[in-house]
Specification:
- There is one protein chain.
- By secondary structure, the protein is mainly β.
- It is built from no helices and nine strands.
- It has one domain (5-97): Lipocalin (Beta Barrel).
- The chain has strands at residues 5-13, 16-27, 30-37, 40-43, 45-50, 53-60, 66-75, 78-85, 91-97.
- A hairpin with a 2-residue loop joins strand 1 and strand 2.
- The protein is globular, with a radius of gyration of 14 Å.
């Protein structure tokens, strides 16, 4: 199953649960994407899908300025894994793919 789509993510961090949305798409055969949450949208970099393992990096400024590295496993329309920011402990990440609503425009 392709990984492209809109994913609703939840990160369990030391400062509480943080929700974000990641959008993944394929452009000229290359996976790219963006993430938005906490009032900012940032590009994803180094997006790599290896079997069912997806990794990417992103830099955020809210709630803190951090460079994050994600490593998740895709299982159909769900994902689980971790997000790591430098020397901080890894945070648990879970996510669900948004399913397009059939007939939503009727």
């Amino acid at each position: 199953m392709p990984v492209e789509g809109i994913w609703d993510l939840t990160m369990s961090t030391p400062i509480g649960k943080i929700k974000a949305v990641a959008t993944l798409r394929r452009e000229d055969g290359v996976l790219t994407g963006t993430a938005h949450g906490s009032g900012e949208e940032v590009p994803l970099s180094d997006v790599v899908l290896d079997g069912d393992r997806l990794t990417w990096k992103q830099a955020i400024t809210k709630p803190l300025r951090l460079n994050l590295a994600f490593a998740v496993t895709i299982d159909g329309d769900t994902l689980t894994g971790t997000s790591k920011a430098g020397r901080l402990p890894a945070s648990k990440v879970t996510g669900e793919r948004r399913i397009a609503e059939v007939g939503a425009d009727n």
